[in-house]
Fold:
Amino acid sequence: MLADALIPNGRGRCSVEGMDNNEQLDLRDTARGVAIRAGLLTLGGLFIGGWITALALKVAGKAIHLLVLLGAGLIITGLGTYEVKKIQRRWQRDDVNSVA
Structure:
């Protein structure tokens, strides 16, 4: 009766009344239950861990591709700027020589 007062709406009444059975679990049943739970948790952990690892590797691969692309763009832009400056210096030198 005290358990009914503590559990609202009687949601847990079955679990409280179900605990009144006098059947004792032996060590073999307990070990089997622990082994099953451990196996399920291990498989679930491996599955979720593998999924997270695959996702992280995919993101890292994309990040490396973007960094390589950014580096190539910077190198090409630097070479282009160097060539433009070289041509500008040549034109300045030609203009100074043509005036004198």
